[in-house]
Amino acid sequence: MRRLVRAIGAGGARLRWFCRELFGDAKYERYVAHLRVAHPDAPVPDVRTFWREHYAEQDRNPGARCC
């Protein structure tokens, strides 16, 4: 029974990770981690500012997007 509960928990954790990566929820956390390592003196933007700048950059440089 414990194995089953652990397996379900592990599957749920994997599903959560997949969904966060798919929808981009982890981008801000990765960006903050990068800033703290590569630029420790730089101010860390709040979440709203990060996403505003992220989408503005996508609009300036659409890359391989279809729209």
Q: Describe it for me?
A:
It is a single chain. The protein is mainly α and 67 residues long. It has one domain. It contains three helices and no strands. The radius of gyration is 17 Å and the shape is flat. The mean pLDDT is 89.
Short synopsis of the structure:
The protein is an all-alpha fold and 67 residues long. 72% of the residues lie in helices and 0% in strands.
Question: Keywords, please?
Answer:
single chain; 3 helices; 67 residues
Uncertain runs: none
Q: In percent, how helical is the residue content?
A: over 70%
Termini separation comes to 49 Å
Largest sheet entry: none
List the domain count as a whole number.
1
DSSP helix count? 3
Strand elements, count: 0
The oligomeric state is: single chain
Radius of gyration: 17 Å
Structural class: mainly alpha
* Mean pLDDT, all residues: 89
Instruction: Report the order of strands and helices.
Output: HHH
Strand content: under 5%
Shape type: flat
Protein name: YbdD/YjiX family protein
Organism: Leucobacter alluvii
Pfam families: Sel_put
Question: Strands, helices and their partners?
Answer:
Layout: H1 2-23, H2 27-38, H3 47-60
